[in-house]
């Protein structure tokens, strides 16, 4: 039924659907692909060389007590934080397929390793939408603190179903053990460097093609929901909730849009003149943490290849949104109002100096400016590698 309605809507609004599709494709082509591909390739490369097992052995004493996941989760957490969603889901699924995680551990890990990357928060949201770099610190700290709290909360997930883990004795030579595991993993893999690199590029580009499809689909879906006034209808119910939290009803429409796609929702929230900056930032913080149905659909597609359930991830996103909005409210005075007063008095803290933002902003500008060329080049490499593999099979 829903597919029939969508098909009819596409025929009723062909121009608007095409524009939304191009907007989603442009976002994927210029930003998502070039910003995620290097991290995907590097992570695949490191897994093939056994570096993940090396890092996991060293981080076991930290990750196991805090989050009840193996030490390899530390690698996934770091890569997910640096590259953004859905890198955490892809790496978690890969480690689950290699039996480095149990299903319960994977469900815990994926719940707190998917987050927005710093370039997007500082470059696109703070500078691009709000034209206010100082908001980047507040949004980033609230976002990552919220994710940390989700990890602590999800450590209790599946505890009754999990077999009791026997307490391990302290390793007297952790570094020696880590190097031994790295050597064993490398021998077990056995692929030459060229083969590992080629497989990493193919696997990464294939995943990003799937991600691009979801971005375009949800860009069109979001536009159709708006044209059919479904977004406006849903915003009526959100208005009731916003009234309880003393948020203006004008933010309900950006909120609904952000529930489906974070970029559009964040942009609409920053442009809502009827709301104060504080209210805009709180709603945007929730949208960033919830990550939108577009990203969640990408994660669900990646997890479908394993026995990792999607439901715990979705529940974790609700908690993450709540935690992020809460921290934004609690840290507003300290990280924004007080710091703005210091900026006005020319007493600028080290972490708020212009140089702190310049590298992140320049990184974002470089991706936007040259991302399309990088995407085109890597797609050509992908086609050549795929063609070569097909010829070898003939």
TrEMBL record:
Nucleoside transporter/FeoB GTPase Gate domain: residues covered: 31-128, 208-304
InterPro entries from the UniProt entry: Gate_dom, Spore_IM_YlbJ
Entry's transmembrane regions: 36-59, 66-85, 134-154, 196-218, 224-244, 281-302, 314-332, 367-385
Keywords of this entry: Membrane, Transmembrane, Transmembrane helix
Domain of life from the UniProt record: Bacteria
Protein name stated in the entry: Sporulation integral membrane protein YlbJ
Organism: Anaerobacillus alkalidiazotrophicus
